[in-house]
Amino acid sequence: MIKISNRLNARRIGPLTVFVLALLNAGVPPAAAEVRSPVLLINEDAATASVTVKKLRGNISVLTGSGGNIAVYVGPQGKFMVDSGIAVSRPRVEAALDATGSVPLKYVVNTHYHWDHTDGNEWIHQKGATVVAHENTLSRLTSGTRVIEWGFYFPPAPKEALPTETVKREKIMKFEDETVVLRNYGSGHTDTDLSVYFKNADVLHVGDIWWNGHYPFLDNGAGGSIDGLIRWVNECIKASGPDTLIIPGHGEVSDRKGLTEFRDMLVSVRGNVARLKRQGKTLAETIAAKPTARWDAKYGDFLISPAFFIQMVYMDV
């Protein structure tokens, strides 16, 4: 998600999610449960948030401020984009894209199906770009998806927003002066994930496999899991080198060292939560035991609170 304002802090989102779950489990109509969904609050922020451009290397820049981090490669004749952001940010995303160069946008790749990475597909496709995604992203955007943890139903996307090229495991694309490698390692954050590697520039976009400096969201309802996420992170570590720049779905651009530290946090928290659950601890008792305490200062101050992250891991181990 985007960098959030004070009214969207982690302390609010955690209880909000539990509240929405309680409403749904009690049979409250979805519309009532969705009124205060974080999706709506994030969209409100995105409608006015600035979109900034940071040049990386090899004619690649990262755009921040509209959902997840957007990567843009600018070649002599066209642009190649990774993720399309939130649609309400269109004017500022378009201005940021224009700032990277005057050539037209040719491709956009979705790293997964979540709205903050795909919501701009429609207007980008209307401008003539080809939308590429994992085959499960096409399926989920076509059918619509309820994300219970967010208390929100995403209706089927309009035809113009749907990917027109799909990937199952790997696709290598020759785009102007770059070789772009798209890979899927099975289910991770979701069952729709793709990594995007710009080979010549040695820049790797991993989508929401990595939330740099933040606890991640596990979309259990769409095939995500803590074990799948750990496997994915390990594969991305192996796919990178000591000089590779790694773009996370959220947070600052970093490198293999930073991603390795994130992996170590995931493994540590998973082990702690699994051990407490094997001892017969309830979810409330597990949260009270603070199995994330070692990592909270670094990872616990964004959208996913420590308690919410523990809850997702507990339900998964």
Please give the alpha-carbon distance between the first and last residues: 25 Å
Tell me the CATH architecture: 4-Layer Sandwich
Spatial sequence of strands, sheet with the most strands: 1-2-3-4-5-6-9
Taking the sheet with the most strands, its summary is: 7 strands, mixed
How would you explain this protein's 3D organization?
It is a single chain. Helix 8 (226-239) packs antiparallel against helix 9 (256-278). The chain starts with 9 loop residues before the first helix and ends with a helix. The protein has one domain: Ribonuclease Z/Hydroxyacylglutathione hydrolase-like (Metallo-beta-lactamase, Chain A, 4-Layer Sandwich). It has 12 helices and 14 strands. The strands form 3 sheets. A 7-stranded mixed beta sheet has the order 1-2-3-4-5-6-9. Strands 10-11-12-13-14 form a 5-stranded mixed beta sheet, with helices on one face. The longest helix is centred in the C-terminal third of the chain and has 23 residues, at 256-278. It is of the alpha/beta class and 317 residues long.
